[in-house]
Amino acid sequence: MPAPTTPARSRRARTLAVCAVPVVALLASVPFVPLPFSVAQPGSTVDVLGSHEGKQVIEIGGASARKTTGQLRMTTIVVTGPRVDVDLGDVISGWSRTDRAVMPHDAVYPVGDSDEEVDAHNQEEMKKSQDAATDAARRYLHRSPGELKVGLSLGDVGGPSAGLLFTLGIIDKVDGDGRGGELTGGRTISGTGTIDADGTVGEVGGVPLKTQAARRDGATVFLVPKAECSAAKANLPKGLQLVPVEKLQDAVKSLRALASGDENNVPTC
Prior knowledge:
The protein has helices at about 5-30, 90-95, 105-110, 115-140, 165-175, 205-215, 230-235, 250-260; strands spanning about 35-45, 50, 55, 60, 70-80, 100-105, 150, 190, 195, 200, 220-225, 240-245. The chain is an alpha/beta fold. The strands form 4 sheets. Strands 6-1-5-8-11-12 form a 6-stranded mixed beta sheet. A hairpin with a 5-residue loop joins strand 9 (about 195) and strand 10 (about 200). Helix 4 runs parallel beside helix 5. The protein is globular. The termini are far apart. This is Lon proteolytic domain-containing protein. It comes from Streptomyces roseoverticillatus. InterPro entries: Ribosomal_Su5_D2-typ_SF, Ribsml_uS5_D2-typ_fold_subgr.
């Protein structure tokens, strides 16, 4: 037989019942509370040896531009905007899918909290990347600004991660593989990485998503900053060869080896 309920026990039971109401309400609202994350997915790729939005991506002045048949496709990711609320459902979905990535909001948008501020920052980073790519290509080719003039245009694409591909595109258009052929060997090459004027290749974000975008758009080779090999191998699409690079010279050497069929001299992750 149940023990009789004393006033003290009765009060405690009521107290627990009353407290449970806001707890249940809080748990029910968790899926809809904005969280400090952004969700990314594979974006577009652009052949820097070709045109984008009706305009040549790389314009060469002061030298004859070579004709190319291969492609050098820079890669992008698409991320939820700085003012878009990401809730628990979005995070769980992002974690469970290989074509999504959940990233800390502040890592994706370290500057500004409006679309205008973010766009301005990304365009500034793109301009720096283009300038560094031009300087790195000139140094590699031993050309002065007076001998080689370069114009770069990529529409509304922003950020610094196309630097390596810009540099390789300039070199391919001016000098090819240095032996009369194309640096790409006629293949569709893709990749990512920042570039410094001295040719140092830097790390970027979203590499596993970029490899998916590259393979989707026909690439068979992906150039990746060496420090991000492990990230690149996560969910690597079938048929995509990873080639690690630390310096511009590494990338050129590997592409020349691929173009000549010398696979044994091409490093892998």
